[in-house]
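thread: overnight batch results

M.L. [08:02]
morning all. the overnight job finished for the chain we discussed friday. pasting input first so we're all looking at the same thing
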Amino acid sequence: MRIHKASLVAIAIVGLFFLSLYATPSAVLAQPGKSRLYQAPTEILLGGLFPLTGGLAGGGVEREAAFRLAIEEINANDSLLPDTTLTYIVKDTQTDPAVGAQVAQEVIDGGAVGIVGAASSSVSKSVAGVAAQNQVPQISYSSTNPDLSDKNQYPYFLRVVPPDSVQGVALANIVKDFGFTEVATIATSDDYGLGGITVFEEEAKALGLTILSSQRFERDASDVKTQLQAIKDSGAHVIIINTIVQDTITVFSQAPDVELTGADYVWIGTDGPTQEAVFENSEKVKEAMQGMVGTRPNTGYGSVYEHFLDIWEAADPNQYAGAGDRTPNTYATFAYDAVYAFAYAFQKMINDGKDVTDGATLLKYLYDTDFVGATGPVAFDENGDREGVYDIVNLQGDKFVVVGSWNKKDGMVLSGTITWPGGGTNTPEFGAAEGGGLAFELPVFLISGFALLVVWRRKKQ
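M.L. [08:03]
and the structure it wrote out:
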């Protein structure tokens, strides 16, 4: 069989053409199992949703700064997304669910293929509805309400923080380990407040603890003295609080007015109250909170965490709110890691020749993401949740000091000294609740009176 010379030339030209394609830079990657080639995108847009105004603005602006620092660092990194630039759109949620839904749609309409945020659980729920409708994955850096673990309702929602279903269990076990047997609870009646405190109360009862008073109030309420007085009247000496920053300020601004602070009262809080942002503008609040103990997700450890602190300290606070020191907001590192979770997923998709704008596929790659971030090992379980490891913190002077840790395997492990309200270092011991004291004191009084009567009669005889 003879092949025409012209045919040989044509074959050679075609061969050189395909060879030239495979010889191009790493931006052109072969899709395994298929002959077509996938061109890595030159840009990928992320949406960032943060509370830049409103009750959570103090921490929100720092989380937004960490978000931008992560993106800028990735863009300068030749080993991660070397041929792709991450861009972003940031929107203010105002800690308002309606605004959150609106701005979520705006960033999606602007071309965002993924969303970092929101902060509060109620806002994240509304954002999750918009994200699911548009098949855009969402990673929250601080929303902890257990309802968000429901993938039937929130299929495109993930988070780099553990849910309150873990924190509530942790807190109840910590209270028991301290030897406290009676508590009161106070929380807001929103998604965040109810999500955490409900789990705590259920676990506390299962552990044999008594809840003397269970108080709720509307978010952004200006007066909570009625709830505080009810706790006072119950006789509780140990009070569990689950509120966001602004509502925590309200509680501790008014707690001294009903004499619910000082050495006779131990306050134990979740990640909402255990932030310096609560008292940064009020000496009265800071004084009322002294000795408070609480839990908050471990904010970071290891070399990546130290690296984050280095870049945070070196950053200009005029450009990156709150930067310039080594004490970022509790959730700044989580916002940083949320960006990296997307970046690693994007890189794997590009390597596999997948379209990064395909939200359903991106979601699958996020579930397979596993890396070491500023907050430690980052991976998602089947509910899009992060395994819970908590710092145990204690307010000593101007800052919350880490005094121990809690995880499901090891339980509570104390590594430092706790300074309790009043300044003592020994764990307080409280007897029967004062509010229920009459039921105890009346029988004692009657028995004592009867004994005195018997003695008196014997003397008369």
